[in-house]
User: Which sequence fits this backbone?
């Protein structure tokens, strides 16, 4: 092995990884972001060490769903205030009112491959709002079938048109955002379903409300696994780790945050956010989280755009892979 050549190559890729507009050095892949009430978001490392607090202007509001854009900015929905706050990585509020036209209680949001944001709403008309990167409303999608709380938890398939959603009821539903057409229900059988996330094989993980469980439903809508996380409690938030083999969930009231292996159900790590002053955990995001709808090098499992913004390029993907290798070592 030519050690000098190898070191030079690695240094070049690492320099690429930290150029402005590519991969950000401030947030690390795997950092956990918890919406903890009072308009705040806590940022943790994967061992539960509090790294940063983001404080928005809506002190009485629940902080729920979150997303990251290609610049690494954090977006957080504020449920009661009907607002979305955009933060820089240093915690500066860049926009205290991203988007507009919320009917009632925006709860979850995501970014698609073209850079548009979708926002699900728990109440009111239950519409799914679509914004461009500047926060301009470009479309209002109106599903015609709901379960309890409308479209409050949403996730987009890699086809960029099939939106999966649940409304704190027993059913995961589907809607085509390209044609504004209601599709057949995907799954029925939960108790009270909250946050949900698609995996690369078309299956779905969903927090199963007051049972203390997370369910795993295959691409055909069949229940294939139940992860019993705790006795009782209310698992509310959920997201996929950048490693693609584990997920995060949290109890909204006890504030316990869990890191869980998908294959075995083993709890890899857990901690309580209320040790740092949290009043609840109503939202949970992970920097570099796996998303099917967001930008990336291919149509399957891809990293969030915040982690990989040299989208579709070999150099960008190599930089992301290198950083993951270093972080694990």
Assistant:
């Amino acid at each position: 092995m030519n050690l000098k050549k190898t070191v030079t190559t690695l240094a070049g890729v690492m320099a690429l990884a930290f150029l402005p507009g590519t991969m950000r050095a401030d947030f690390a892949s795997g950092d956990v972001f918890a919406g903890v009430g009072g308009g705040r978001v806590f940022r943790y490392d994967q061992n539960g060490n509090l790294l940063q607090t983001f404080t928005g202007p809506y002190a009485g509001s629940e902080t729920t769903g979150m997303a990251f854009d290609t610049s690494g900015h954090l977006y957080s929905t504020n449920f009661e205030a009907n607002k979305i706050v955009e933060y820089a990585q240093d915690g500066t509020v860049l926009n205290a009112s991203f988007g507009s036209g919320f009917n009632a209680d925006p709860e979850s949001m995501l970014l698609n491959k073209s850079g548009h944001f979708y926002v699900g709403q728990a109440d009111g008309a239950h519409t799914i709002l679509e914004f461009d990167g500047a926060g301009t409303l470009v479309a209002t999608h109106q599903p015609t079938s709901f379960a309890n709380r409308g479209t409050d938890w949403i996730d987009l398939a890699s086809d960029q048109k099939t939106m999966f959603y649940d409304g704190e009821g027993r059913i995961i539903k589907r809607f085509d955002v390209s044609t504004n057409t209601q599709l057949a229900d995907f799954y029925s059988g939960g108790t009270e379903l909250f946050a949900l996330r698609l995996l690369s094989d078309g299956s779905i993980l969903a927090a199963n409300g007051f049972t203390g469980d997370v369910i795993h439903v295959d691409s055909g809508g069949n229940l294939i696994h139940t992860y019993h996380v705790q006795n009782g409690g209310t698992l509310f938030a959920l997201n996929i780790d950048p490693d693609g083999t584990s997920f995060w969930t949290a109890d909204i009231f006890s504030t316990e945050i869990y890191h869980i292996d998908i294959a075995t159900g083993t709890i890899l790590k857990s901690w309580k956010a209320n040790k740092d002053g949290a009043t609840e955990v109503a939202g949970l995001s992970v920097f570099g989280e796996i998303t099917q709808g967001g930008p990336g090098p291919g149509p399957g499992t891809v990293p969030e755009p915040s982690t990989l913004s040299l989208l579709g390029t070999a150099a960008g993907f190599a930089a992301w892979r290198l950083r993951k290798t270093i972080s694990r070592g």
Confidence is low (pLDDT under 50) at residues 1-25, 297-302, 305-329. DSSP finds two helices and 27 strands in the chain. Residues 33 and 43 are 5 Å apart (CA to CA).
